[in-house]
Amino acid sequence: MPSTIVVRRYLKPPLFLLCLLPFLWVAVRVFEIGGTSLGANPVEAVQDTFGQWGLRLLVITLAMTPLRDWFNAPWLIQLRRMLGLFGFFYVLLHFLTWLLLDQGLYWPGILVDIGKRPFITIGFAALLMLIPLAVTSTNGMMRRLGKRWKSLHRLVYVIVPLGVWHYYWQVKADVREPLIYLTIVVVLLGWRLWKRMPARNTAGWAAARDRIKQ
Hints:
The structure is a single chain. This protein is mainly alpha-helical and about 210 residues long. It has one domain. The chain has 9 helices and no strands.
């Protein structure tokens, strides 16, 4: 099992670079380096790339705890914060691309879009819930909030399904990819629910047994 020092020195740096690759991919095509381009609709291509990678990284973040338990790999938790912050980074870039490049900061149109187009409303709600998680991701905030920190960060159980829902409603025809994400998220959340059930059932049976003895 990798030690904390090994994770910090040898696993986190390459993971950081891997998480940065989608941003670099977009940058290369924006500046048409090597003759590459973003196609006929560059704004949509940038927005979709950032949104898809934001969702992927959030799903991977959600998977860290189950993977830790399934493979007896506690060191995986040390990678969770970086993955979550990169997920927030790409979701924020996805939103800013829509806000600045697609809408051009035209606030009347923006407010109408948020109110009338359900997938935008859902995505915006998920982003708003992500912000406090990103802000409180430091060790100092963990110590300051104590038990409230864990309760706050359980919002990810709502945010990720909202992100999948947002993606599902956004795509017009091919919904295979969002359905794959939905399946993964259902498994991850279902596993968490199942993990809690034995303890509850055991406590319930113990209480019932005690009542019978009395």
